[in-house]
Design brief:
With 544 residues, the chain is an alpha/beta fold. It has 2 domains: 260 residues, Carbon-nitrogen hydrolase (Nitrilase/N-carbamoyl-D-aminoacid amidohydrolase), CATH 3.60.110; 256 residues, HUPs (Rossmann fold, 3-Layer(aba) Sandwich). 36% of the residues lie in helices and 20% in strands. Strands 5-4-3-2-1-14-15 form a 7-stranded mixed β-sheet. Strand 6 and strand 7 form a beta hairpin. Helix 6 crosses helix 7, helix 6 packs across helix 12 and helix 7 runs parallel beside helix 8.
Amino acid sequence: MPMLAIALAQLNPLVGDIDQNAEKIIEFAQRFDDKSDIDIIVFPELTLTGYPPEDLLLRPSLSMRIERAIDRLCKADLRMALVVGYPKTIGGQLFNVAGVVSGGRVIFEYAKCCLPNYQVFDEKRYFAEGHQSGVFEFKGFRLGLSICEDIWDGAPIDELKSACVDAVLNLNASPFHQDKQAEREHLCRARARHINAPIFYVNQVGGQDELVFDGGSMVVDCQGAVVARAPLFDEYSLSVTIDKRSRKVTSGDSLQPLEHDAPDLQVLYQALALGVRDYVSKNGFRGVVLGLSGGIDSALTLAVAVDALGAERVQAVMMPFRYTSEMSQTDAADQAKRLNVRYHSINIEPMYNAFVDSLATLFADTPRDKTEENIQARSRGVLLMAISNKLGYLVLTTGNKSEMAVGYATLYGDMAGGLDVLKDVPKVTVFELARFRNSVSPVIPENVITRPPSAELAPDQKDEDSLPPYEVLDQILELYVEQDCSAEAIVERGFDREEVHKVLRMVDLNEYKRRQAPIGIRLSKRAFGRDRRYPITNGWKIGD
């Protein structure tokens, strides 16, 4: 009875490096050369370019580079067939294509039918919709190709059902957000039962700017049971055999746990670490530097950075001022010692005094206000950027989602840097992640977690002097930012009307700051950046 052995290659490509991505495909396939049972290897969506390639798709040399890479795949003398994703221009239009390379040539191509244009996706900006069938014959099997969104839309799946395919090969570049893997698995199980055929779902892994691709490739049988699953956040390969008569699939791989079988905080932490590791490494930075204030945000950022990159690539700098408490300085030094990172303390008093003295005439007869507080933050930003320039280190900023939402940060001060690790992490979740990390090993001093949050830019300053308690603030922000609830709808949930209007007004007024902020790692369904795009100049009223 005919059997077909299929491997899923969960790869971490580098966007735009088409030649190297092709080489990586070949190297990956060559690992299977000694395994005579592998007939076909399936790679993720747009494997050759990486995802999302954005306006690289508009470059004049794109077609030439893709053709050169495909030619390399065809000449690689590989025994098994490859299913690879790439962009292709056909009749003057660009398509998102999955091609089957076998016997030294491309034997079949399928263009993605359903183009997502929501949240972080804007494929209709680049691609035309495909309309041809995704069904092809291979070694006596009738296989169906689909690409990412095709499996979420009902029409392509119904076509594959009508074609009575023996299996569906689904190529994906599906980015992470919390609970995303459970959503994917629920979908694949339902689709497999609907078409009465197994689904081979392969997903990209790795960080790409603010997006994290978590992998989680899987194979689901006709009954909707998951028979093989790749781990999250790592490159991996799955090997599965399908029987033509029964459509039964068997795997020698151990079944990896579901995302929702692992603690949510562990998954979020892993996503942050992968996002940092790939952003720093893929962009060629030697390491990272950050201001370690003795507060919880910088403490968690430091822990993530060390776990992502190793202590030898991380430098922490305490920059005290007259309002910096002894406890903050002690706790910062303690954490740096626990994590074994290079640590320096640079007093910003001389810099601050120089700025204030230079402005003394211009600011004569004016009272002290936020201006002097911001000079402190900007003095620190200057120091960190100087270290970055001199050592080739990326500056990690430490603002969380709650602060970014309401503008509780200083432009060109604590917002100066290249990557904001916690930009999509609400303050309450920052505390939870810190507790989680300490449950693994106690790297964050307990004082940092338990003391009231403070920017320490003024005497006895506390965050809650200017903001609602974070337990309240984060709920309001989730309703407004992530769920698009109106002010009235939020008030109806039991929140104080005056407080709701104050918070929403702060969010709207600070769009100009967020536009100038570093990118941050996306964890939610609605992060600041690609997900949420509001005009800076607008007359929208809170009550509308």
